[in-house]
Amino acid sequence: MQRDRRTIDALRGRGGLPRGMRVDHGNPLDEPMLWIADQVVGAAGDAHTGDDRWFRALADSVELVRIEL
Predict the structure, then answer these.
(1) Distance (Å, whole) CA 27 – CA 51
(2) In degrees to the nearest 10, what's the CA dihedral of 41, 42, 48, 52?
(3) pTM tops 0.70
Protein backbone atom coordinates (compact mmCIF):
# COMPACT_ATOMS: atom_id res chain seq x y z
CA MET A 1 0.00 0.00 0.00
CA GLN A 2 2.92 2.36 0.65
CA ARG A 3 4.14 1.82 -2.91
CA ASP A 4 0.65 2.67 -4.20
CA ARG A 5 0.68 5.91 -2.21
CA ARG A 6 4.08 6.87 -3.62
CA THR A 7 2.81 6.19 -7.14
CA ILE A 8 -0.29 8.31 -6.54
CA ASP A 9 1.82 11.14 -5.13
CA ALA A 10 4.17 10.96 -8.13
CA LEU A 11 1.27 11.05 -10.60
CA ARG A 12 -0.25 14.04 -8.84
CA GLY A 13 3.12 15.80 -8.85
CA ARG A 14 3.36 15.35 -12.63
CA GLY A 15 -0.23 16.42 -13.23
CA GLY A 16 -1.36 12.87 -14.08
CA LEU A 17 -4.09 12.93 -11.42
CA PRO A 18 -6.17 15.88 -10.36
CA ARG A 19 -5.21 17.13 -6.90
CA GLY A 20 -8.84 16.95 -5.76
CA MET A 21 -9.27 13.32 -6.80
CA ARG A 22 -9.84 11.11 -3.78
CA VAL A 23 -8.05 7.77 -3.71
CA ASP A 24 -8.93 5.20 -1.06
CA HIS A 25 -7.38 1.84 -0.33
CA GLY A 26 -9.52 -1.09 0.67
CA ASN A 27 -8.80 -4.46 2.16
CA PRO A 28 -9.57 -7.30 -0.27
CA LEU A 29 -10.50 -9.47 2.71
CA ASP A 30 -13.29 -6.99 3.46
CA GLU A 31 -14.22 -6.42 -0.19
CA PRO A 32 -13.36 -9.40 -2.42
CA MET A 33 -14.21 -7.50 -5.63
CA LEU A 34 -11.10 -5.31 -5.19
CA TRP A 35 -8.92 -8.00 -6.76
CA ILE A 36 -10.60 -7.50 -10.13
CA ALA A 37 -8.99 -4.09 -10.69
CA ASP A 38 -5.57 -5.52 -9.82
CA GLN A 39 -6.04 -8.33 -12.33
CA VAL A 40 -7.09 -5.95 -15.12
CA VAL A 41 -4.11 -3.67 -14.46
CA GLY A 42 -1.80 -6.69 -14.39
CA ALA A 43 -3.17 -7.92 -17.72
CA ALA A 44 -2.70 -4.46 -19.24
CA GLY A 45 0.86 -4.26 -17.90
CA ASP A 46 1.68 -7.68 -19.31
CA ALA A 47 0.26 -6.64 -22.69
CA HIS A 48 2.39 -3.52 -22.64
CA THR A 49 5.50 -5.68 -22.23
CA GLY A 50 4.51 -8.12 -24.97
CA ASP A 51 2.33 -10.81 -23.35
CA ASP A 52 -1.22 -9.89 -24.37
CA ARG A 53 -2.91 -13.27 -23.83
CA TRP A 54 -4.79 -12.13 -20.70
CA PHE A 55 -5.66 -8.67 -21.96
CA ARG A 56 -7.13 -10.07 -25.17
CA ALA A 57 -9.71 -11.89 -23.05
CA LEU A 58 -10.70 -8.57 -21.44
CA ALA A 59 -10.27 -6.18 -24.36
CA ASP A 60 -13.98 -5.98 -25.26
CA SER A 61 -14.84 -4.98 -21.68
CA VAL A 62 -11.99 -2.57 -20.90
CA GLU A 63 -11.28 0.96 -22.03
CA LEU A 64 -7.56 1.59 -21.80
CA VAL A 65 -6.58 5.25 -21.38
CA ARG A 66 -2.89 6.07 -21.69
CA ILE A 67 -1.61 9.15 -19.90
CA GLU A 68 1.61 10.51 -21.34
CA LEU A 69 3.58 12.66 -18.92
Answers:
(1) 29
(2) -110
(3) no
Return the number of other C-beta atoms located less than 10 Å from residue 46's C-beta: 14
Per DSSP, 26 falls in state -
Question: In one letter, which amino acid is 53?
Answer: R
Q: What is the pLDDT of residues 28-50, one digit of tens each?
A: 788 878 888 889 989 999 999 99
Cβ-based neighbours of 43, under 8 Å, separated by 6 or more: 54, 55, 57, 58
Q: Distances in Å between the alpha carbon of 58 and those of 12, 37, 42, 45? A: 28, 12, 12, 13
